[in-house]
């Protein structure tokens, strides 16, 4: 780090309230000179020579700054923004009746997004994921549970440009003609909530896209599932990255970020990761997230 970078890093420390934590990056492995990055979510031990992934992790200590002014963050500049809106979701039902209640919650989120982003002509929800941190996560990684998932501590964006099309083909089969030649965004809105009060346990950290070098820092990764192959974007470490989190997030504080754009417009992804808060005093984090496609 040169003298000028040291100066601006020092200014960053002075201006923001900081949290020291760790983020799991993708290592800059020489294997990517001959192989595309890939990962699977199922065992392959029964196949001779098969690997579940060629990813190598690069855990880095990072400084995560508190978001003070929520209005300064712009979806089309930083890759994410923050909204405040009333949402209604029964905490018990989200675990036991997810299929029954997800359509109503999609409609609620879609209405909020239409109000705040009038440039979109159509918004469709297609996924609802619930996360509830096991008390011994991340030391112990339990088997997949259909009712909820664990936080993701890997710096990533859910879909690449190609991955957005693959997700649409899977979630909306037979509708290819509708989105042909149309521009769309793959968005995700995340609301962290508790039954009584929000928790400071494992908050979501977001990387300011203006601090990312798209050519050097972003790596496309094939995500191989039992029923489909998708493509996401992973992040290589760069000391220029600046990470932020929403301290004291309430149940009606929404974080919205772009995962990809069909025409490859910047920002290319809202890169995010769950981070351990060394000063956390709250109960294990519970969150619910919705993925939507938004057509211009």
SSE map:
Elements: H1 3-15, E1 18-26, E2 37-40, E3 57-66, H2 75-78, E4 80-84, H3 93-96, H4 98-116, E5 122-132, E6 156-157, H5 161-171, H6 176-179, E7 184-192, E8 204-207, H7 214-217, E9 218-224, E10 229-235, E11 243-245, E12 253-261, E13 272-274, E14 286-295
Parallel strand pairs: 2-9, 3-11
Antiparallel strand pairs: 1-3, 4-12, 5-14, 6-10, 7-12, 7-14, 8-11, 8-13, 9-10
Family: Belongs to the asaB hydroxylase/desaturase family.
GO molecular function, one term: oxidoreductase activity
InterPro entries: AsaB-like (IPR044053)
Structure description:
A hairpin with a 4-residue loop joins strand 9 and strand 10. This protein starts with a helix and ends with a strand. The chain has 7 helices and 14 strands. It has one domain. With 296 residues, it is an alpha+beta fold.
State the share of residues found in helices, binned by percent: 10-25%
Query: Major sheet: order of its strands?
Result: 1-3-11-8-13
Residues in β-strands, percent: 25-35%
With helices defined by DSSP (H or I, 4 residues minimum), what is the helix count?
Answer: 7
- SSE string, helices as H and strands as E: HEEEHEHHEEHHEEHEEEEEE
Number of E strands: 14
SS class: alpha+beta
Low-confidence stretches: 191-197
End-to-end separation in angstroms reads 42 Å
Write down the domain tally. Answer: 1
- Write down the overall geometry: globular
Q: What would the average pLDDT be, to the nearest integer?
A: 89
Rg value: 19 Å
**What multimeric state do the chains show?**
single chain
What can be said about the biggest beta sheet?
5 strands, mixed
Protein name: CmcJ-like methyltransferase
GO molecular function: oxidoreductase activity
InterPro entries: AsaB-like
Family: Belongs to the asaB hydroxylase/desaturase family.
